[in-house]
Amino acid sequence: MKPVRALLVLAALALLAAVPWLGSDTLIQFGINTLLLAVLAQGWNIIGGYTGYASFGNSVFYGLGSYGVAIAMVQWHLPFAVGLVFGVGLGIVFACSLGVAVLRLRGHYFAIATLALAQVMTAIVSNIGLAGQNVGLVLPPLNNDRLFYELALGLLVLATLTVWGLTRSRFGFGLIAIRENEEGAAVMGIDTTLYKVLAFNLAGIFSALAGGIHAYWITFLDPESAFDISLNVKMIIMAVFGGPGTVLGPIVGAFSLSAISELLSSNVTSVAGLFFGAVIVAAIVLMPRGLADIVRNVPKTGWRYFRQNIRAHRL
Amino acid sequence: MSALLEVRHATRRFAGLVALDDVSFALAPSEILGLIGPNGAGKTTLISIVSGTLAPSEGEVLFQGAPITALPAFRRARLGIGRTFQIMRPFPGLSVLDNVAVGALFGRGGGQPKLAVAREQARACLDFVGLGRSAGQRAEELGGPGRKRLELAKALAMQPKVLLCDEVMAGLNHVEIDEVIDVIRKVRDQGISILVIEHVIKAIKSLSDRLLVLHHGEKIAEGVPAEVLANPTVIEAYLGKGRA
Q1: Would you say residue B219 lies in a domain?
Q2: How many domains is chain B built from?
Q3: Is the CB of B107 less than 8 angstroms away from the CB of A185?
Q4: Do residues B43 and B150 both lie within one domain?
Q5: What's the ipTM?
């Protein structure tokens, strides 16, 4: 990475880390939510952006992470860290068992299958006594937003470093090869099944950790909110808006879309959803490969870039 | 000399269609075997069965004397079976160099774990096929002939013992065809056996040690190029009855 860019990233990181001391309580809460969404987007980036398997079910891992922390802390009186590990463990079991089956599907079928899994989890967990069934669980309160903020930021840094590591590793090249041409990848010696499961696990681990942090932060969870299906759409839109298959894209996407959403909600409340939808449609038409692609190409091709994209959609 | 690669009684059915019918052949070390036949004869199907992309309905494949019919494609690649595709699909998200590096990272024996070393090996393969100057370009920017060479380079980076080439000369002009023939001969000189599917008869005649002809999924001739191409059955297969 070029030194100037590295410095900019470090400066941004320092600024982000300082927010809990510089900003208002509202800003910190907005920050925690945005950071956790960025983690989800980055996690999705691994399985969707780099491997090309657009999962609509990462919310399952988020929910498993949430419940892992909740059950460990409420039912077994274990510390938070252990809860996180338990939540990650649940995620890994899920990824290795059901993931293997679901990863045999491609493209739209994979997306539908993962979405189905996400829907089913809510129903299953609602019937488990240990998880508090429909009523849910209430965690011991910890009123320390600063801690949660820094935890979320730390997790985002970890996720981003992992993605960066992918771009320079044999494993990452394997994933990209699978995305671009899975049959060709197999013929070149890549164990595609193993790699897909590993990528799914990685995405799941980060999603589970995000869920665990979120659960402890808001101290309450029930099946509906823990396995929130809308998270899937959010994380995908953010990753794709920012630039799937890039290192910083999902972060930029998460931050910018959260900000836009927040602005719209506070200023145009009644039709915020409509405006947000319009933003997304415009993004898909004008910049289908995300902001990262704009940064790469517009300096070279200028406005033609947008005209080309519009034409490609045959509007 | 025992065969490096052997296919015994390979048969492949797709629902009602018999794409391959009891085809057997052997490939010796450092041999160039040409595989020809009219369109739809089953050539690509046969190669897919050898590379592991398709499973045969009947029959077996042996590599260095050991059966590999049950092995998935990636394991065969690790044993040393490399393949190019007829419809070239380079990895578009990667540069030309990195496309080839994938071959070096994952080829025979599991490939090379270090990316830097893999890239060096990739560079050597690109030079070998004559694409050295295009290393930094994006793969989609290469024209047709360039892509064909890229396919070759990718397969070579895997350090194969057997190379399966699916129509590497299609769409090339005379000069380009001669260049590809040179490259393939250089590959054989490295000790690699090559199975070449080709439609350009003139090219495959000069290149191959032996020819194998498929027609409607059956082997109709096998032997030295001069004999095979004079065989009336072969001529009839290409030009139709009454022209032999």
Answers
A1: yes
A2: 2
A3: no
A4: no
A5: 0.88
